[in-house]
# Entry
Amino acid sequence: MSLPDGLLNRGVMPLPRLTIYRHDRRKRALITLAGEIDLESAPLVCAALTRCLSDSIRIVDVDLTPVTFCDCSGLNAFLYAAQRTKEAGGILRLHNPPQSLGRILDLTGCGVLLLGLPLGHLPPPLGDIPDPVAPALADRSVPLVVVLSGEVR
# Structure
C-alpha cells in the first residue's frame, strides 16, 4: 500500500515507536521509556543508557510504566547497560516493567540483576528515594536450565 502523492510531498514521516525522556539529579538519572522496545528500538535504549555513563551518571533508574511491549532485544539492551554501569561502579534498576518483559525476566532469572531484588519482590517506588550506595552484586553464573528433556543421540 502506498501513500498518496500529497502526503509524500509534505514529508510525512511515521511516528517513533519509542520515546526516551531523561531527568538528571546530581549523579542520578531517571530515564522514562514510552512505547515499544524491540529489535529496531533497542539500540536507542542502549545509546541513552550509555550516554548516562559518559555524563558521569552512576545511578540510573529506568521507568518502564509507559512501555507497551518489550522483547528479548530490550532485555539484551538492559543487561548490557547494567553490566557496563556495574563496571563503572554504578547501578541500573528497572521499575514497573511491562508484562512481556516481566515474563522474560521470570523465564531467564535476570530479575535480580535488573530489578535489584529477588524475584517476587517489588522494586522501590520512583518517588523521592534517597541515593543508594551502589551495592556490590555477587558475581554468579546463571544456572543451566534444561530446555529439552529426553535422550540426545
Q: What stands out?
A: The CA atoms of residues 7 and 14 lie 11 Å apart. The helical segments are 5-9, 42-54, 72-87, 99-108, 111-114.
